[in-house]
Design a protein that fits this description.
Metallo-beta-lactamase, Chain A, seven-stranded mixed sheet, binds zinc ion
């Protein structure tokens, strides 16, 4: 198990020369990690943050590194905690994502702010990617190679992982969230399992997930174990006509009860049910309707967004 993310202030942790994880404890709903790759030419950021205040704080930490002025922002996927802060980096920053991530960002807009209206979001606007790719893209930042790779649908239909082949550092986005409950409602169980195999083949030493503490490749195994259990629950309960909510209540959390955001189980089982029907992986669902069930399962409480 990775060490606990703990609480406290966001912080930059150097994980290789000029390569940082920006960790926002405790990594729960809305509290994402970012990555920072600094060079004399400039900085490549992996994701931003959910609110204006949090993105400004990240920007200040990045500016204090004394790197060059160029700014490239890579969005690992469309979710607002990773992307709403893009606009804080201004028009001079080049924002990059998978082509479908840009489509999903355009369609989703600021809807995350409506889900948690009590959060002080600040002055945000949607800053869509300027540059998109479909399979892979290499960014040369000074002498450093930064590879943007899409291995197929996983946490969403169009996740990007950021791979530093020299340093063997992987920024995995929300495909991996060490010490936290995986969330594949808007993605795919089977696709995530396939992508985890591809991530293992990269053979990283250091894995920075989209939430939670810095980890190593053991985080792949922990994620896989959780996802396989979703498939087992679907195999057992769906043929009996149980709903995902009924199955979640009856099957319980098992060995994953220790993970925070346990209520994601209901959303995850919705995806497992859909996949058991067959058809295209990561096809759209109504996330708002399923979120209501997550609230129901969570004793009627909306999960807290700590942004
Ligand atoms: Zn996400």
């Amino acid at each position: 198990m990775p060490e606990a993310a703990g609480s406290g202030e966001p912080r930059l942790v150097e994980i290789a020369d000029g390569v940082y994880a920006y960790l926002q404890p405790d990594g729960g709903w809305c509290l994402n990690n970012a990555g920072v790759i600094a060079d004399r030419e400039g900085v490549l950021l992996v994701d931003t943050a959910a609110t204006e205040r949090r993105a400004l704080r990240l920007r200040a930490e990045v500016d204090a590194l004394g790197a060059g002025e160029r700014r490239v922002v890579v969005n690992t996927h469309f979710h607002g905690d990773h992307t709403l802060g893009n606009s804080v980096f201004g028009p001079a920053a080049v924002v990059v994502s998978h082509a479908l991530t840009r489509e999903d960002m355009a369609q989703t807009g600021l809807s995350m702010t409506a889900l948690w209206p009590d959060v002080h979001w600040g002055d945000l606007r949607v800053a869509l990617p300027d540059l998109t790719y479909t399979d892979s893209l290499t960014v040369h930042l000074g002498d450093r190679r930064v590879e943007l790779l899409h291995f197929g649908p996983a946490h969403t239909r169009s996740d990007t992982v950021v791979w530093l082949p020299e340093e063997r550092v992987l920024f995995a986005g929300d495909i991996v969230m060490p010490g936290h409950t995986p969330f594949v409602l808007m993605g795919t169980v089977a696709g995530s399992l396939a992508v985890l195999d591809r991530l293992r083949e990269l053979d990283p030493v250091t894995v920075v997930g989209g939430h939670g503490p810095v980890a190593g490749p053991e985080a792949f195994d922990e994620t896989e174990a959780y996802l396989r259990r979703l498939q087992h629950i679907a195999d057992e309960y769906r043929p009996r006509g149980a709903t995902p909510l009924e199955a979640a209540r009856d099957a319980g959390l098992g060995e994953f009860a220790k993970l925070p955001e346990a209520e994601r189980l209901v959303g995850n089982l919705h995806r497992a049910w859909l996949e058991a029907e067959g058809g295209e992986l990561a096809r759209p669902v109504d996330p708002v309707a399923v979120f209501q069930e997550i609230v129901t399962y969570n004793d009627g409480r909306l999960p807290t967004c700590h942004a």
